[in-house]
Amino acid sequence: FGQGLFAATLPVAMAYVSDVKPSRKEKDAEIGVLIGLFMIGSAGGGVTAIVMEEQGLFAPLFVGAALNVVATVVAFFFLIEPRKIVKDDVPALRSSQRSLVSAVDDDGDEEDSVDDEDANAPDHLNIRLLYNIVLGALLDNIGSAGLLPMAMAPLALREFYTNFLEQGEEPIMTKAAFKWLSVMVALTVIPGAAFSQFVFDRITTAGGCIVGNVVTDIMIIAVLYIAQMSPATNATYVGFIICLYVGFPFTVLSQLSTGPMLDTISPVRQRGLVQGINVSVMNFGTAISPYVLGEISDNLGVSVAMWICIVVSFVAALVNVPLLFAKMLQPKPKVVKLPKYARNLKWEDPEFVERVLRGEWVPAQELETLNMDRMRKGQPFLLVPFRSYEEDKEHLGVMKVQAKRDFLFLRDHVLEVMDENESPEERQKLIDQLNHSSATPEQVEVQAKGLGKWFIDYLQDVGYWVDDSPTVFKQMIMQAFPPINPDKDITLDNLEDAAINMTRVYNKYLDEDEYALGPATKALAGKMVI
Description:
Shape: elongated
Radius of gyration: 35 Å
Largest sheet: none
Order of helices and strands: HHHHHHHHHHHHHHHHHHHHHHH
Number of strands: 0
Structural class: mainly alpha
Distance between the termini: 90 Å
């Protein structure tokens, strides 16, 4: 009783996993692993008892006590307190980049994506679903007793051991074999835990729970039928063991699904409480059902007790059916991860990148440093979306000051890049990197629409009649934006000319703003290179 009173390791561990694992898939998988490890640990206790049988009844208890001390020390000194999780707002970059995201498919790495699992956690505990899940789990726990322990003791023990002793014959199953088979069957939970997430991903955790209930029924019927085949032979004994060991991993799906479902319906602050309620109810069922089933076995027969387990497990499946339609337990729609050109990569400052993706001004020097680093690493450039003119119109004077600073940096940066890459080999490498990191045609089209809309809104807002004389407007645009590279694609032959033309454009705007030009840039103050 004292051990059970303080044995809260499993619910605390499941709540801990929910706090530290970022995605729902990882949470569900890790909770399944925890339950599997708990069952394996229980089997380890049985193995210890068998191995130390000759040392006395209490010897294995000292081993368990020592392991508890080790676990306490490890948890106290090495377990890190998870961060306090609150419901955060959805990052603004998702809405600001929705149009860009729709232009291409995501090619990003999973570890770079933004996760909002905890932000999407419910604010309040759904009591109806809690009762539904816990009741289904309790019935499943009682029904599963028909497979373990009843399939081994008393069914297998009676059919393959005691019946032979009563008839004065050599038993098919030895006492040692009975002990090892009873203990080692728990290890078959390992493959069950391994493929559980595969099942949950395809039919949801609620579906996996019902499948586990149904398979449990089938396996109890199968082992009961094989064990009662008369006469009992080595063939029926082997068939019984194979059926039990092959089928048991599938039956644990129902038990492995309970933790993830409870985690899904729980507010962040109540995860430990909810998991604790579940484990408490399960422990109560585990304590009461063996006694009740044992009394039924003694008075009405083992077959009756196992058929009761079959009925209870079937009822558990029916109880769990409404969970298939619970909105909170439905698979979440697949979130399109932001592609790399529209999010920060794992080594970049997320706050800076979010400012860029909101269309806010950041110094060109800082943005260029980030993009040059991306280019060297073979990653796409970070694209800056065009904010609407309505968002910018109150800040046009500030934008002019910001643009002066950026013109000056970009002009000098072009010259610096050309100086650093003088040989044809270096320049060809630069061109290849630029082409690899540059925006795709689909992305360019999205950017062009944003720029065009901003430009037209500006013209109309400051008094231009866009419906008047297209030729005049076209000439004004051509004069404001002289050709940079008529070939469009950058090649080794036109790279230097394009750099010179770009520098002269920057100089033009800097001259208009009375910026002093350095000697290097004054030398380029001639006509455009066309």
